[in-house]
Amino acid sequence: MLNIARSRRVRSTPGLDIAPLIDMVFILLIFFLVNTSFVKETGIEVSRPTASTATLEKKRSVLIAISADNRIFMEQREIDMRAVRANVERALAENPEAAVIVIADKTSATGTAIRVMDGCRMAGAVNVSLAASLPQGS
Asked: What is the C-alpha separation between 101 and 128, in angstroms, rounded?
């Protein structure tokens, strides 16, 4: 007598289930997106003057750059002197505790840096700093 039940059994081939792997990739992606801090750049390269008392600012800051030819940049775009206050107000609305750092080229006019810093204070910024580099031996 033939065993019909045994002959009808279909053998399943072993396979690799990639669903947990895909889930893990998405979890890692979300983890890195949440923990990434996005840095806003000024938009130009500035040659900063050196200062032996310069300190490193750790928290998120609003960055404003002044080029050698006294052009003002914020968030990778050039802005007018009259727009500094409005742009800083907008940035401080997003992060009220942020410090404002003015990164002036060492050959830029001092008057431009002072007018930019004054505009930042009129916008409500409490902590306005002028950026400098540490001397090479420090």
From this structure: 6
* 84/100 Cα distance (integer angstroms): 11
| CATH number of the structural domain spanning residue 98 | 3.30.420.270
**Which residue reads 């420090």 in tokens?**
138
Residue whose tokens read 């003015």: 102
Q: What is the pLDDT of residues 7-50, one digit of tens each?
A: 555 566 777 788 888 889 989 988 887 777 665 656 666 666 66
User: Is the separation of the CB atoms in 64 and 92 below 8 Å?
Assistant: no
Dist. CA 110–CA 122, nearest whole Å: 18
**What value, to the nearest 5°, has the Cα angle with vertex 110 and ends 106 and 112?**
105
Q: Is the pLDDT of residue 107 over 80?
A: yes
Q: How far apart are CA 88 and CA 125, in angstroms?
A: 8
**Segment 72-81, tens digit of pLDDT:** 999 888 999 9
Residue 56 lies inside a defined structural domain of this protein: no
The total of other beta-carbon atoms located within 10 Å of residue 68's CB is: 14
Our count of domains for the chain comes to: 1
Q: Is the pLDDT of residue 88 over 80?
A: yes
